[in-house]
Amino acid sequence: MKFSPYFRSFLLAGLIAILLVGCTRDPNARKQKYLKNGQSFFAKGQYQAAAIEFSNAIKIDPKFADAHYQLAETYLKLQQWIRAYQELSRTLELQPDNYQAHIDIANLLVAGHDLDHAKDHIDLLLQKQPNNPLTHIAAANLFSAQQNVPGAMQELQKAITLDPNQSEAHLDLALLEWKSNHADLAEDQFKKAAASDPNSMAAQLGLGDFYESVGRLPEAEQQFRHAMQVGPQNPDPVASLARLYMRESKESEAEQLLKNEAPKLSSTSKGYRMLGDFYFATGQLGPAGTEYAALYKQHPEDIQVKKNYVQILILQGQFDEANKINSEVLKANANDNDALIYQGQIQTRQNKLNDAIQTLQTAVKNDPNNGLAHYHLGVAFESSGDSARAEGEWQKAVQLRPDLTQAYRALAAAAIRRGDMPGLEQSAAHIITLKPNSPEGYAMRALSYTNRKDFAHAGSDASKAISLAPQNVAGYVQMGNLRLAQKNFAEAEKSYRQGLDHDPSSSEALNGLINAYLLQKQPDQAVAAAQTQISKVPGNSAFYDLLGTAFINGKKDMQSAEAAFAKAAELDKNDSDALIKLGQVQAANGKSDQAIATYEKAIQDNPNEVNFYILLGELYEAKQDWSHAQSEYQQALVVQPENPLASNNLAYVMLKNGGSLDTALTLAQTAHRAIPDSPNVSDTLGWVYYKRGAYQSAAGLFEEALRLTNKAHQPDNATYHYHLGLAYQKNHEPSLAKKEFLHVLKIDPNYSDATDVKKALAEIKS
Hints:
Strand content: under 5%
Structural class: mainly alpha
Oligomer: single chain
Number of helices: 44
Radius of gyration: 36 Å
CATH topology of one domain: Serine Threonine Protein Phosphatase 5, Tetratricopeptide repeat
Largest sheet: none
CATH superfamily of one domain: Tetratricopeptide repeat domain
CATH class of one domain: Mainly Alpha
């Protein structure tokens, strides 16, 4: 049978199609196609796309060793170390003789400080691949990690002997010579590394870094510019040059460089993020936010852009927008630890403290070695009033991240609150190590020395803080504190005023100046100082708070103090100190209902501030409204479980209100453990024991309360003596009981329970 030419063409086309379909269905052909595609993406630096292609090849053939190895190399480029290790391990299961995989996994194990397993691979390489220079480079890495610098140098020399143009060996040897303070030898090796491989960015930048480290800054700039020519699409040399300009205090040159170069680097995330990152690093949040807002629109799928933008928005207080963008990251990966930490920060700032703690605990559980997660968990605990757990998290943070300045700063603040001056000195010393050109650490350490009357060292540190940053208020404040401690009031005033000249909004400097006047019995000057700063910075809530304090402590003018605290609260509804004082002054002025209203409003605005509940409970106690008092103390313990003051007060109110003695005992014991030096707490626990019939234990606690009162130089307390008398009476010690009862009437003839005291005396006489 004859076929027409048309039909033959149709038949041929059909056969070709069948053959092509057959090829695409051939697993071997498909996996090779994915491998080839992955290699193409890898060569272009498109590592995420390469990883997808290699993974597809492995799905077709899980034993495809070449794909496993290529995927491992891709994960190394992406710095996904755990995945890289897994793929290298699988490669070696399938290809035990893949010596390059042995080299890669050995280097990865060294980087992860798993030196014993690294040595196993290197021993094998030295046996099987003794003439491979990369074997000796891996051995050098192991020796270096073991602090065996001579051994590392010897291995690198072997690598160079095998391949004199081995740039990596020259570079590693240069770094070791540099570390050994052999500058000339290091420079020679850096130059050889750069000459051996002119396209090696690590070698070119290594030489530039060397020049910068030895102060040869013009040569460093020249080298970094040469590196920019070598890798015009690589952002690293641009970043190095910008850093150099910043070191030289050429911030405008650095900014202009990044503005010029960023458009040329738009093919990589690191490149187009450089200008925004520069603004963020230099504290220019406005320009950083503007730059990242544009980047977010231009690169909506870039996770790192989203994360960096979220950080900026958090610092700018734009929590709703930050939460929206952060939710996009979590939607893509619910266990993204960076995003969980940001979410915890946002929740903390929005006073959603229970949610914040839960979120950050999840982040810590996901990555127990994440120092930043521990730090922010500590912030959440501190905001919830749990200072002990906060400090524990901050201590963990600095163990994991010794470079985490903000954690040391938090520990320093905690030490100040506790009056722990050695602890403050220790945290300040770490900050000085991390930021030697910042006044912050020196100012903190000066405060520690001043409080311990080590005036010579305090003066040295305060002077250092001033010399490092003459425009920063911190040094002047600490110099003022030092002079105040020395009772050199004129110099103290001078230092505080210098601080206010440089920073008119500094509440620390104004507080020091007011204290200097009050210590000299000059209340008018104290009030005038506050009013002067208010005229310069009228919207500063803290200044009105200080004005109110000056009216109370200096002039005993409660009406003016109340007006000042009210203004502070009006300016800042979150100014807890001013709100607390406002309620206290209102109560002292006989306006207890107003004080109650003040604290109720403060609770609405600051639901996690435990002190408002406690103070409100005390106001209800004064009105003998035991039910409302009990409710407020219970709410305080919801906000901050085991708060000692709330526990103590609730235990006392429960005794007044017919509550459970067992519950009251637990609460009183909690308070006594936390503040064992409080006479009031000892009295409450004693009264619980008295009510339970444990009179001997009760008497011991009442005696303790009186000892603590005397030790603290507090006024003699009629209630403690009355309670002790009752305990003696129940213990059948009438003479001791009579002595206590008589003492009650002696120190306070109008004692509120005087009738009961007299009745008890009458019972003893009879």
